[in-house]
Fold this sequence. Notes:
The structure holds 2 protein chains of 2 kinds.
Chain A: E1 5-7, E2 10-13, E3 19-24, E4 31-37, E5 44-50, E6 53-57, E7 64-68, E8 74-78, E9 87-94, E10 104-105, E11 109-113
Chain B: E1 4-7, E2 10-14, E3 19-25, E4 32-38, E5 45-51, E6 56-59, E7 62-67, E8 72-77, E9 86-92, E10 102-103, E11 107-112
Parallel strand pairs in B: 2-11
Antiparallel strand pairs in B: 1-3, 3-8, 4-5, 4-9, 6-7, 7-8, 9-10, 9-11
Amino acid sequence: DSGVTQTPKHLITATGQRVTLRCSPRSGDLSVYWYQQSLDQGLQFLIQYYNGEERAKGNILERFSAQQFPDLHSELNLSSLELGDSALYFCASSVLASGGETQYFGPGTRLLVL
Amino acid sequence: GENVEQHPSTLSVQEGDSAVIKCTYSDSASNYFPWYKQELGKRPQLIIDIRSNVGEKKDQRIAVTLNKTAKHFSLHITETQPEDSAVYFCAATSGFGNEKLTFGTGTRLTIIP
Lengths: 114, 113
């Protein structure tokens, strides 16, 4: 157990819908990262937050947005869902935002868009 | 931005033999290189990492080597066991205002009993 939690574990929804994925980092970690992993694909970095502020952006679609709250948990919002958005979404956390730190991954949320 | 290439994409080795996975990176400013292991349906877990001021690091049966000049790093697993079967990802980051990890495409390692 990495100490990073994600809810829900599984999510099934329809095209055009909107969902929210939630991540709670390890106690003491200020940085949260979001990744998308499609079937048999690698990990694609989406976005990073550090202490409530956006820190780095990756290949995140405009239909996706995220935020980090004062208690440091983070939410990833996916809207106007398409079939291709079906994937495993991981969040990870680290103490700081230096990049050269260990990132601890949560168990992931498996999203299926029908 | 950083680009990480990983080879091979699949690797099968006999139990007890060694496995080697190689990665190359493009950004000479990269200074942190972790390796993650991901079992089917589970989270990626860090197994070893190396920083650019070190050429080699070892942890029991796992070792990582780094060649900064050639911009490549490798994962070595010795005396492989069935539980080593998983997908392994390398990654790189510079950490200087660019904190995101860039991952390789993964290597599916299968240990044959």
